[in-house]
Structures are given as structure tokens and as C-alpha cells.
Amino acid sequence: MVTLLLDFDGVVNANKPKWHAPPRTKWVHADGEAFKIRWAPALVDEINELSKTLDVLWASTWIPWKFVLEHTLGFRKFECIDWPTEHVESFAKRWHLKETAARKVLESGELLIWADDDLPEIGPLLKEFKDQLLIRPKSNTGLTPEDIDRMKEYANQHR
Description:
Layout: E1 2-6, E2 24-30, E3 33-39, H1 41-50, E4 55-58, H2 66-73, E5 79-80, H3 91-107, E6 111-115, H4 124-128, E7 133-135, H5 145-157
Parallel strand pairs: 1-4, 1-6, 4-5, 6-7
Antiparallel strand pairs: 2-3
Helix pairs in contact: 1-5
């Protein structure tokens, strides 16, 4: 089986998504604040479709408010990585939680697709996960149709 670890900001929520139709924009409330989110509905449809053939796990600061993403954007109900119920301010702590989740996927014997705009471009993490599909989209565009095609190809190769 293949598991997709999915970040939200800079991956789905992006200022200028590169999809065929215009993006949608909406203000949502989380943690007592209003946030403007922008996404490509076709991307959400593609991720929902992918979730029929692979496991999708949220790996995002939005985990405590994932119901907002499901309700507002139309995502299916995905499981989440282990995450505190409150907002995690520290980037280092957030990254540790994500790395720990990625290692758990590998230790379980599953393959990993990890989509996160904060993935490093170089370093030991890339060596450790060299046989996995790591996608680091540009934060302002998020995942592209080409990224989704790479995910589908990777998942199909490892069925």
C-alpha cells in the first residue's frame, strides 16, 4: 500500500494554483481567527480520487480544524498523523511530528508519497527517503496537475 502525507498551506492552499479552472477563495475560521484560503477545486477532486487507491493522511497545522477543510473544500474524511489538539507554533516541533509520521509509514512496510512545501531540497532526509516520492511544490502555486500525475504513476508502479 502507498500512503500520502498531505500538507495543506502551500500545497493545497496556494495563491496562484496552476489548474485549468479559476481557483476558489473563501474566508474560514480556525483557532479563533479568520483565514483566507485559496484552492483549485480540480486538485481537491484529484486527491479525493487518489484516496480510493491509497491512504491519505493530513500532515498539517490544520489538523485540529480538518473538518473545516472537509466541509469548505469538499475533501473526503482523511485520517491524520499524530498531532496535538491545539495549534503548534514551533516550526521545529511541527517538522518533527511530520518526520516521525513519515518514518512510521516506512516502518509499517508501506511506501510513502509526501507532499509538503517545506520539504528540504538537499540533506540527510532525502537520502533516508530516497525510494519514496517526495514532492515539494512551490508555496505560491501548490500541487500541480503534473504533481498529481507523478503520484498516480508512483502508486500504479507499486500496486
